Amino acid sequence: VAVMKLTGDKKLMRQLKALPKSARGHLGTAMRRNVEEGEKIANVLAPDVTHETRGNIYSELKDDGLTGIIHAIPDDAPQQDKDRAYSIEHGRKAGNRGTTSGHKYMWQTRQYLQKKFRGRMRRAMKKAVKEVTNG
Question: What percent of the chain has pLDDT over 70?
Fold first, then answer.
């Protein structure tokens, strides 16, 4: 299953959760924007002949908005649909239906957003630190 997960390591997550709620709000807003933009870009880049692929892309926020995940297909989808999503992203190497090359739309989304994501999170962190330390 193609999943794009944006998160930090455990120590960083503990430090972020220790921030006051108002300061964490800046980080949550930045994460929400990143995830929403990532979902839109994945929808644009996804190959969609049967209108199934784009309909399955969705995003979610966890850990009070500090973790964002973009899913290519729901977790509770049947195995056949998961196999289909995997073969779109990575291609088919063998089987009775031939071979295909992958269309790495989730990877392309991650690459495109990487610089923007870092910048947004850096600005949000600076805002949060400024707020906590009173300037």
Answer: 83
CB 23 within 8 A of CB 128: yes
pLDDT tens sequence across 2-27: 455 555 567 777 777 777 887 788 88
User: Contact, 127 vs 26, CB < 8 A?
Assistant: yes
Q: In 25-135, which ranges are E strands? A: 58-62, 67-71
Which residues in 33-57 are b (16+ Cβ under 10 Å) and which e? Answer: ebbebbbebbbebbebeeeebeebb
Give the residue carrying structure tokens 């990143």.
Answer: 34
Beta carbons within 10 angstroms of residue 94's beta carbon: 7
- Backbone φ, ψ for residue 97 (5° rounding): -105, 10
